[in-house]
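Subject: sequence -> structure tokens, single chain

Hey, anyone have a minute? Need the predicted structure for the following. Not urgent.
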Amino acid sequence: MVILRLCLATALPVIVSVVLARINLYLSEQQKEISYKTWQIIVGVIFGCLAMISTEISIHLGNAMINVRDAAPICAGLFFGAPAGVIAGLIGGVGRYFAVYWGAAYYTRLACSIATIVAGILSGFLRKYLFENSKPIWYHGAAATTILEIFHMMLIFLTNSSDVNTAFTYVQLCTIPMVVFNTLSVTITALLLSPYGNEKQNNKTGRIKLAENFSRWLSVCVVVSCLAATGLSWRLQTSLSLNNTIEQLNLNIQDVKDDINAASDKNLLRTTESIARALSNLDSPSFDDIARLCKQYNVAEINIVNSEGIIVLSSNLSFKGYNMASGSQSAEFLVLLDGKTNEYVQEYGPISSDETMFRKYAGVVLEDGGFVQVAYDGKRLQEDISGQLVGITKNRRIGEDGCIIIADKNYIILSDRHSNDNVTHTLEDIGINVETLLDENSQQLDYSLSRIHDEPSIYTYDAAEGYYIIGVMPQAEALFSREVSSYITFFMQTVIYGILFILISFLIKHLIGDNLEKINQSLKQITEGDLDVIVNVRNNAEFVVLSDSINATVVTLKHYIDEASEKMEQELKLAKDIQYSSLPNVFPAYPNRKEFDIYALMDTAKEVGGDFYDFYMLGDKHLAFLIADVSGKGIPAALFMMRAKTVIKSLAEAGNPVNDVFTLSNKKLCENNDAEMFVTGWMGILNLETGIIEYANAGHNPPLVRKKNGNFEYLKTRPGFVLGGMEGVRYKKNEFQLEPGDEIFLYTDGVTEATDKYDALYSEERLQNFMNSIRNADCETLCRMIRSDIDRFVGTAPQFDDITMLSLKYKGGPEYEKNHN
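Reply:
Had a minute. Here:
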């Protein structure tokens, strides 16, 4: 049920985000867009209410709760807009603050309210200033949510600093589920909304932008640094916590040890004083008197030492005559002979005369000089202090749940505040391995780990007066400071690193990324041909140098382009002159010939063109004339034009019929034609005596023919294939009769396909109508009037094709007149 509620709370922001995104897309497609302000308010209120719903379906843990509330304002801010995020955060935060009145947890009230408000504000800030009002990539959303939830956990500490234990308990319970489920909700939302993320501009290069690439590597460095710092802090805090725990345990053990020693010292000293008083009442104490006193006071040994440090009487006959100065242990009591010390107590340990014998001695100065020495053996010492052990340790606590355990040499527990069943227990019974315990002469004060009273614990020990004194503290309590410090350190590092990451990314993007984008836009304009663009990015010295360098490069480039253009213009002008000089361009062309009038003009779209015309005499009685249009324009077309013109003329001058001229020209032009260029052409050979024209058409426009005093009509015949287009083509010869006064007009498609600014064509119909409107004009006048009409039609529109025309008027020859008279 708990998981189901968390999954429901996780899914709600996802579902609402997708629905709102689809609604926004639908309204956009239907051109029914809501104003930005209204849309932001609607989205903010919806997600704010969603945050309040998440509060109500939270999982309560005492005075705290696990919830997915912060995902709502984060989704509003990151995916829909900064105002929506702020509105949702305020509604969700205020709602959480007052939710305590109808059952919400009070303990985390302030922390949760602040966290929700900050979540909305910060997510809106990130969208506006870091993501430029675009939907973030899923891992950006996941990182932002993780940081905000960790900030939420840190607020629990900050707002409950007077009750760290309780705050830490809640943080331990809430951190992982809240971070996971809130981050999961935002991440899924980002992935599902990516198809609707049309705000992002496509990166045509397919490569990552500098700012984004920098952010990725920066995030890796931040994560590694944060984990490294957390790991180092964990180790240091662990060491510090263990050292503090061991020190605390040892101090308590030493206190108990001191209490035990003080109690046994006090009892033995009191017994020794009583025996001293009893001896002072005897005139001459004997062995029997000493034996009686040993039995009476239940002591192991009584020695009377004279002022020279010699035992003169002892309950142990073997000690009589022993010099106290002969052993280090016994020599300690010689301080009683200095006249300043009246009593002295020694710890339980081996004696000088027999190291296998253990005694605890006390000495008191006698009135007649010398001193009496009284000893407890181990059994008597335990009898003396065993009654006081429980009182010393029963209510002693170390920290919250730590304690002192006292056991005898047989590892039987004498005092343990956790054992209240009046049953004898050993150290093994409660989980302490007795093999780790050494006697009091081989003290081991390091710590050990064990499960004591079914709880993982840390313990250390010492031995005193024949007892083991063991200090125990639960491991959880011992390492509590480490846990709290590590959590707080991790939270602070995450938040601080996150803030630094955002600031650095923001600065990199706006100081470097945006400026580079400006430079790239200027460079794009330059590469597209606008060399008048000035790069003017001067935020930093480096960009000033870069801008100036680019501008200087463009200036130099313009200079070289101008030089190259000027040189090219000169070369093209020369090429144009050469091209024109290869064509008949002196008119009248044959001033001595009265049989005909001929005129031609060519106006190229570029400096040189692919159109050409030609006319020449074939002997004295025939005039060859033609017009042609090479595919393409510019220099390649001009070169192919020169080749075609030369081939056709040479074949015509060789006396070939017009159809064979085209057939043989086609064969030659197909050879080595790797560029796959071709020529359309119309060629006629006029018999000046008879007026008969033999002609061939290689895919060219039909000429216009006007009979004397009639109108121009198109000479429509089936054209042949273009020259140079395909090998093996044979062309057909046609003929028709010109009468004196008849005219024929040849042209290229640059005439009829001339276009105005509205892309309307000059057309064959307009050409025919205009020519029919002209009467009694010579060939030159006719051509120039047509060219002027084309210019009027085109207006300001640029010329896209070569314009070429040729006009021929037949006046009749002697043979014609002879045959017709």
